[in-house]
Amino acid sequence: MMKILLAPALFLMNKLSFKFKILASILLLFVILILPSRDIFNTYFQEQNDQRLQLIGLEYMQITQKIINAVQKHREISHLYLQNKNNNKNKKKNNEKIEELEELEELLYHRQKSLQEYDAQTLNILSNNRNFGNAISQFELIRVDNLPEHISLEELGQKHTTIINALLATLLDISIVTKFNRSSDPRINYLADMLQDKLLHIYEYTTQLKILASGLSNSIEEKEKQHLYKISSDLARLESNLIDNATMSDVNNYYTIQTLTVNVSEKLKRLLKINREIILNKNTSHDMKAFKEKTNSSMMAQDELYEKFAYAYSDTIKELNQKLEKQLRCSILGFLIILLFSIYIITAFYQSITENIKKLQKASEMIAEGNTNINLKVDKKDEIGNALLAFNIMSEKLNKNISFLDGYKLAIDKSSIVSKTNLKGIITYANDMFCEVSGYSREELIGKPHNIVRHPDVPKEAFYDLWDTIQNRAIWKGIVKNRKKDGSYYIVNATVIPILDNKQEIIEYVAVRHDITELEEKKEEIKKQRVDLLTGIFNRNQLLEDLKTAKRPILFYINIDDFSGLNDFYGEDAGDAILQQIADILSNMKDKKKFQLYKLEADQFILLFEEGYISLDNLSYFFEDIIVTIEKRVGQNRNKNRISISVSSGASTYMMSNDYQKLILFSSIARKKSLKEHKKFLLFQENMRRPKEYAHNVEWVRRIKKAIKEDRIICHYQPICSNNTPSNPKYE
Question: Under a CB-based contact definition with an 8 Å cutoff, are residues 311 and 233 in contact?
């Protein structure tokens, strides 16, 4: 049955490309689940919650309106009570007024409690509302029991008006919280505006007009006239708003409201006409009883109109709620229809590709088992068929790649030291070269920590750096000295790689190392050719290389005076210690003073400066400061007798010759000149080049060599006395 139903869809799906199937399915699901559902449901719940709050707000409005009416009635009766009392009229009537006030105050108390109980059960907004609190506390001051003895009618009226205004402000606060007048439907906003504002103000101005007009005499004072005029103007302005209710035409009880609105408007117009006659004609007499009946009739009509507006507000909210629920039901039904249709389409789509997918699945499982020689049968020429063809091509290339990788692995195993470890550094794989170089068998290495080949010369900090790097999923490279099984060492250039799974978690570490022991030993030999073995600083060979690339060099030549005598007197160990100490002093100074340090033969040191870091104008001061530092600090840290030395020096600059290597000779000449003249420092000058003097020296060297060869040298010796021991172990 299902196959028969799916046949049309399957026929269509087989005609479509796989790409179009996927795009159509995704688009359909997107339309179903993403676009409408979120906004529709959010709107539904938001509007439903707003409507619930608005109905709660309506209940607040109706209860508070009754409280306001009671306060207005209390103002009217209090006004009559004070009039009678001030005019010393019938005390019996006054007592009746007092009873009326007490009954009204009791009614007000119950209405207040009713409002507070309702508030506690719903929104709990009145307990902290300042306007409501002020209204309740102010009313306690004008209760008949608390009424001041000599309060005037005007003061009493103002107090009542203050209470009513506070209650009206409370309604506005409630309106904000309950969204009473905030709706997308203009009918709700119009009804709310009438209920919370305009109808209440019309009623308030009507009661004020009634009270004020009832107290007027035939002769109206200017102040009373102004007050009456203000109330009349406000009332006339609000009365004009009653008729302007075109937005109410869609309300269910529109004609009833329209009829009542016209009725209230006509009655207000009659009251306003009387007020204008009173204001314009100072001596016009008016029938108070008839005026009172007209105001009462108008107020009753307003009460009825308020109830109709409240009913219209509630009925409109319910109507909107029903529309909202109907819209939701239609949306859900539409979603279900689309969803069922989508399931139908996707099922057909699934069956159109499931056979080929199973082929791919089986082939993938075969590859996972190590069988890469796969050739799938292709029946369809759609994208899935193309995928099967691509899978066959992939299988063929995979075989080639595996063969290539096997060859590559063989090449690495034959040329490199390779090992694998788990996350704790335990060796899980070791190739033949690792066993051959380290001297351990594979059985001795597998299962052991990698520090089995750690050499004690390698500091622990190097291994801390290695582990910190690879545990942070980075590749570590470095030169490592390892120990063989027989205790000898071998040096490797190591690369340690963390292997990650598809979740980017480390599963093992692979180390590939190349034996560079011979290379490192040769590098050490080369280094010895350019480094002084005693002090560890560069020698003449390195100086000659650096002079080839130097820019405007300045050479400072330092020599210890009579160093051979110092060696003879204190011994070669003491002499070596002094040379090392001078090397340390100068090494500590070279970064600050920007020079390169070299040691030549015996006790000779060369400092290579460049003019950019030193000025030719202050060479003498600069170099003499270095000499003083050396002479002062040498021997300070010796436990035995302090050995004092004297240093002489010479310098030459790049301006003396374009061949910078000659600067070594020139600075040596300047140093010898300074020693001869008993100076600490001299800068080489052209006049120091004395060919005759050098020829004379060469001639004497020749004569001395000849005398030594002919054994014509007579030696004379004298003992070298030590301050510490009375013996004379040395001679000169």
Answer: no
